[in-house]
Structures are given as structure tokens and as C-alpha cells.
Amino acid sequence: MDKMNRRLFLKGGLAGTALGALGLVSKNASASSGFSGYSEGFGVLVDLTRCIGCRTCEAACNKEQQLPEPDKPFDDFSVFDEVHEGGQKRRTSEKAYTIVNKYKVEGHDKPIFRKVQCNHCNEPTCLTSCFVNAYTKTPEGAVTYNSKVCVGCRTCMIACPFYIPAYSYSSVLNPVVKKCIMCYDTRLKFGRPPACAQSCPRETMTFGKRSDLIYQGHQRIRLNPGKYVDHIYGENEVGGTAWMYLSSVPFEDLGFDTTLGNAPIINNVKEFLAIVPMVLTIWPALFAGFHLLATRKNVNNQGHESEKK
Amino acid sequence: MVDKKKMLHGGGFIIVLLVIAFGAGYVQAIETSEGPATIILDSIAEYYEPVQFDHALHIEFAENDCAKCHHHTIGTPSTGTGNCILCHKKEAISKIIACRGCHLSDPYSPEGRKVVSERGEVFHKDKPSLKGAYHQFCIACHEEVDGPFTCTGCHERTDKGDAFFHSGKHAPKHTGTPKH
Question: Above 70 in pLDDT, residue A16?
Fold first, then answer.
């Protein structure tokens, strides 16, 4: 009889935990799946058909963010031919938060340039992967980073689908993650465009409210039939990004990852992550209780036995 | 070519001084029936010297078809980027000829941003700034006709510009640093 009761009780307890977990999961999922960025958030539309690879944006970034001296002058175009580990083109680094790469695309005589920087996702994976909350998505649209709380685990570097955050490996005592913050402290906070966007001679980058830019991007595609691929990269990718791209050639030809899907990356692990706090907080108390209940009989029995003796 | 450029450059410097002296931002050196012969584009010069734009030469290049560049105001409206005249034909705005008359020289100043944010109309939303208009328009044509294509092909860089680009005497001192 005792045994039977305990089994039933255990079953009930587990079912309760599971139900609780489900409730939490569905609540969290519905709360965040509809988030498409702050409505008043800013963004930048990069029209790659306009970029001529002058690297002025790189120079502007270097100046604005007071980055260290570059390895080569910003008017040295040999950087476009650089090949790094694994045959990669240049990537953002602790010394350059934005870079421009050159692509030769079949069927196009002229090279096509692509500017790379943090895309400032609506639901940033760097932010969600960071266990000390060093990242913040500001209402203005920027994804900023607080080096004071960073412990240097570099999970964000692995988590970022665009391979953006870099690490100051050169610093022995205080290495930190380095990435584009959309000039948040000096410009964006005051409603001004990032330095790179303002510096571009050909206005490759259009700065504005993200919602306006999506309209403007589609308008540009409509008004110039045949000029653009009918897609704004970043409008929906990984839940939408503040920086978006227009291109005249398929995005995959320019090294864009077109396999990321439109769901924020956090969605892949959200259900699992919702259970973690439950396991850590409810289970110890619950099973400690079970243990106490299960061993109570022994304690009582021992009492009886000693009385008998 | 270089000599001519230097000559022009020297002459340009005197003209710039004159411009500053008279507080104007725009010089019409020789007035002809077809517009100014030389235009100094200096409203946004900072990292580069003002551009000595040889208007007369470009009229020759365009074979007197002003609409090739003045896309919505003079001559037959072009069908490409310039579709303003389709709506504004009978308005005073269609009398504006200079680029800076429509394209903002500083869209990022507080005033400029206000103007841009208030543009609600379909076609006005995406109007390039003066800098954007010059570089989109001039370079697109220069590419086609093999005109000067590099930055310094049209405007000399200033010392401030050299510092900005870490070039010339401001070039990086160290060489051969290991890269990650």
C-alpha cells in the first residue's frame, strides 16, 4: 500500500514538473517569436550596386572608433587580394570593425564589393548566448557590448551567424571582444548615422528608421526593374537585422549565408533553455522532498525497532 | 595632362580665395549662354580640394544635350533616374538648374535630417544628397567613357584627407606585422 502511494505521488510530481515546463515554454515562445525589432529602431540599407570599393568607410570607422593604426593605408587596394586562413577573404578584427571585400562574379565584367560589419540583429545571437549579459540591443537598434562584465568566454564569436565579433588577442592583460556598435556612443544615440554611412561618397549606405528602409529598399527594386535581385538581405534573415543589403547578383555569390532561415537562432534552443532553470531550481527541492518522504518510514521503523528492543 | 591640371589647380586656388573673399560658394567664371564654363564644387570639401569642374568641356562631351546631366530641368527629361519633371513640369521648382538646388549638401545636419525625415512622397524619399548625387552620377558616366575613375582623379586630397586615409606622410610606419 505504501509503495503504491509513493509511485503515484512520484508520477504526479513528474507530471506536474513537465506541465510547468510546457507552460513556461509556450509562454516564452509566444512572447518572443513576434518580436521584429524596436519599432523606432534605426537601420542602414547597403546598396551594393553603388559600392566601388574606395574604403572610405573603413577609414571613417577607424577614425570614429579611435582604432589602432591599420597595417596598410586605406587607399591601398591590395587588401582586396589578401587571402587568409582557409582561403578566406578579410574579416572584421579588433583593428577594423568594418571591411570591404571584392568579389568577381561570373557574367559580370566589373568586380562587386561587399561591405561587412555587425548587422545588428533584432534578436542577436551574441546577446542570447552571453551568460553575463554583456550585450544590449538598444531601442535605437544598435547591439552594444559592455567589456566590463565580459569574462572572455568568446561564446558570442561562435554564436554569431555572420562571424562578426573579434577578440583582442593582442592584449595580454585585458583582452576583450571587439565589434561594431553602430557608433552608438558618439552618434546613433543622438539620432545621427554611423560614421561609415555618412562618409560614403556614393551613398551606398542609406541611414534611417528600419521600417522606412524596408519600404525604400522595395521601392528601389520596383523602380529599377532588372537592376536588383528581388530580395533585401536582412529584412527577415535570422529574425531581421538592422543592417540590410540590396544586390544586383545573387547574395550567395557575394559570400552571404543564404541558408540561415528567417527564425531567430535563439528559437532553436529556446525550448531546451526554458527547462534549464526549472531543473536547477525546482528539481533539487522536489527530489529532496521525495527523499525525505521515502526515508521517513525507515526513520519511524527504526524508532519502533528501538522501542521494541 | 598633368601640367594642365597643375595650371588649373593654381588658377583654382586664386578663384577659391576670391570665393572666400566674396562669401559665395559658387563661381561662374565665364558666363556663356550654355551656363558657366567652370564650376567649383566646394560645398562639401574637407578631405579633398574643391573640384575644378570644367563645365564647358562636359557640354562638349554631352554634345550639347544638357538633359544628360541636368536630368529633370533642361531639355528632354531622361527616363532613368530623373523623373521629377513628370510631376513638376509647371512648377517653379522645375526652373532650378544647379545640382545643389535640389540635392542637399548636408543631409546629416539637424536641419538636413529634418528635411529628409519629412519627405513622405514616394519619389522624394530616396533622393540622394549632393555628395551622393555627384558620385553616383559622375562615376557611372566616367566608368562608361573611361574618364578619371579614382578619387584623386577628380579632386586632390588634402593633408587632412591623407591623415584620414593613413596615407602619404601619414602612412603606417610599421610594416610586415603578422596578421591573424
Answer: no
